[in-house]
Design goal:
- Helix 3 (about 145-150) packs parallel to helix 4 (about 170-185).
- The protein is about 20% helix and about 25% strand.
- Strands 7-8-9-10-11-12 form a six-stranded mixed beta sheet, with helices on one face. It has a four-stranded mixed beta sheet with strand order 3-2-1-13, with no helix packed on it. Strands 4-5-6 form a three-stranded antiparallel beta sheet.
- The chain is α/β, with parallel strands linked by helices and about 280 residues long.
- This is Carbon-nitrogen hydrolase family protein.
- It comes from Amycolatopsis acidiphila.
- Pfam families: CN_hydrolase.
């Protein structure tokens, strides 16, 4: 069996909503096979004073646009004004039925430069009949706990939405491959184009191989059709036919203390959850 997910990764600078809507309608017309369209961090929201409640006018417009075009849509992240009065950097996802299906508040803002509040919940969502997708934002990728938790929650594709105009983009590319390898998942690291980011977006497969990438800072659309069944295959047979990290523990092994977290790694809870990966 196979579970192909035709997707488009839009490496572009920050847009107004009207520009974004026009670009998305054009992409949908030119690439009708695409099911999931993804945009970079803060693609529609460059200023803190543009923050809205999660269910504000921008949310309704995005949901309507996804429904009109019949697409799974991740329009990047936006500034969200929470009920607590704080502002969050929040990634959102919409279904082809015009519903918001997920929202994720960035857990690791880039301190001390980013002034938004921290989220406290890892988030995945199901693309019906295909697979499960996890959301992360930029600096989250530097913390291995983020991608590990998303993989444990059943994510087969992790979207890392980025707006990096700084010199550490080179390291982020290494992290994208490393996070894919150690969790045996697809990872998309989607950066903004110039002048808001350094581009160099890419999609990595569960063994760490780069499937598609943008060489530079220009506005471009990366398209690919990853088969999410590759995740199960790599975990079954091993990376390079060898390494099966999710099958590390023998039945009955005792928990491993983790002093850093004042907790433990329990072998009984180690394996990823099942969910959309069972849908064929």
């Amino acid at each position: 069996m196979s579970r192909p997910l035709p997707l488009a990764l839009v490496q572009a600078p920050t847009r107004t909503f009207d520009e974004f809507a026009d670009d998305l309608r054009r992409l949908a017309a030119e690439r009708p096979q695409v099911r999931l369209v993804v945009h970079p961090e803060l693609h529609l929201c460059a200023r803190l004073d543009a923050a809205e409640p999660l269910d504000g006018p921008r949310d309704k417009a995005l949901a309507e646009l996804a429904g009109d075009l019949g697409l799974w849509l991740v329009p990047g992240s936006v500034y969200e004004r929470g009920d607590d009065g704080r502002i969050y950097n929040t990634a959102v996802a919409y279904s082809p039925e015009g519903r918001r299906v997920a929202s994720y508040r960035k857990i690791f803002p880039w301190r001390p430069y980013e002034k938004t509040a921290s989220g406290n919940e890892f988030v995945v969502f199901d693309v019906d009949g295909i697979g499960r997708v996890g959301l992360s934002i930029c600096y989250d990728a530097w913390f291995p706990e983020t991608t590990r938790h998303l993989a444990w929650m059943g994510a087969e594709l992790v979207l890392n939405l980025v707006q990096t105009p700084t010199a550490d983009r080179t390291q982020e590319l290494v992290l994208a491959r490393a996070n894919a390898i150690v969790n045996q998942v697809f990872v998309a690291s989607l950066n903004a184009a110039a002048p808001h980011g350094l581009g160099r977006s890419l999609l990595v497969d569960p063994e760490g191989r780069v499937r598609v990438e943008a060489a530079g800072v220009e506005t471009t659309v990366l398209t690919d059709v990853p088969d999410l069944d590759e995740v199960a295959n790599v975990r079954r047979f091993g990376t390079a036919g060898l390494n099966r990290m999710w099958n590390q523990f023998e039945p009955g092994e005792p928990p491993l203390p983790l002093p850093l977290y004042a907790g433990e790694l329990d072998p009984a809870r180690w394996s990823p959850t099942t969910g959309a990966s069972d849908v064929h």
